[in-house]
Amino acid sequence: MKQIYFVTGTDTDAGKTLVAAGLLHKVNESGLRTIGLKPLAAGCDETPDGLRNADALILQATASVKLAYEQVNPVALREPMAPHIAALRENRRLSSDRLVSFCRGTLMQPADFVLIEGAGGWRVPLNPSETLARVPQQMQIPVVMVVGMKLGCISHALLTAEAIARDGLTLAGWVANVVDPDMPVLQENIDTIRASLRAPLLGVVPRLEPCTPAAAAEYLDVEPLLTKK
Predict the structure, then answer these.
(1) Where exactly are the structural domains of the chain?
(2) What value does the mean pLDDT take over residues 102-112?
(3) Angle in degrees, 0-180, between the axes of helices 54-62 and 16-28, rounded to the nearest 10
(4) Pairwise CA distance, residues 75 & 179, whole Å
């Protein structure tokens, strides 16, 4: 049975891709087959092969199951902005049904562990009536939350966790990713969030140099995600 999780962040640039790729790398080491998906990406470069998003390329390269780029990132938008706005500027319309269909099609591939990375935070709009949260809701999959550790992160983390619960989904775990290396009372902030959430802390990822999936994996614990529930 596949273990499938949706990876969300407390904000844009919270470190979702670094953490997701680190988790994939860690699971790869156990010999399990992994897939990383980024169904929606806003902010892509023109290449000879078409539009490419840097985060999606990292997931594609890190996962052990090798997929075509279009399977990893089926909806690629040029401009780095809120996806619904970027889509409107390209005369396209986003919908959760379409994104879920893409994900489910790719998930017919044999795999043991799958991460589906969101875009931005939990309530990123897709259209006037839907947010990206509808994707994990429709798929009924648990969530991994990446908390960007910086001033304001406690409120961001607790509000995101509350929204996930309100949407009827399980927070399977969270990761503290140090965005601001000079953040005062970092440990006290981590301790406060940890005491407020029932979900396990999967790791604290410091500022890394080099910033690679392998380096992030050293600070992550995947066992809570691999345990059958």
Answers:
(1) 3-224
(2) 96
(3) 10
(4) 27
**Active-site hit among 38, 66, 150, 228:** 38
For 196-220, give the secondary structure using H, E and C: HCCCCEEEEECCCCCCCHHHHHCCE
45-47 vs 50-52, strand pairing mode: antiparallel
Q: What is the DSSP letter of 128?
A: T
The whole-angstrom distance between residue 184's C-alpha and the CA centroid of its chain comes to 26
| DSSP calls for 46-85 | EETTEEE-HHHHHHHHHSSS---HHHH-SEEESSSS-HHH
Give the tens place of pLDDT for each residue, 2-53: 899 999 999 999 999 999 999 999 999 999 999 999 999 999 999 999 999 9
Environment class of residue 49 by beta-carbon count within 10 Å: exposed (0-12), middle (13-18) or buried (19+)?
A: exposed
208 is an annotated ligand-binding site residue: yes
Please indicate whether residue 228 is annotated as part of the active site: no
- Ligand-binding site membership of 66 (annotated): no
Beta-bridge partner residues of 150:
none
Q: Which CATH fold would you assign to the domain 3-224?
A: Rossmann fold (3.40.50)
According to the annotation, is 16 in a ligand binding site? yes
Backbone angles phi, psi at 7, to 5 degrees: -105, 120
- Please report which residue ranges of the chain form alpha helices under DSSP H: 16-28, 54-62, 69-72, 83-89, 96-106, 134-139, 153-166, 186-196, 213-217, 223-226
Global confidence as pTM: 0.97
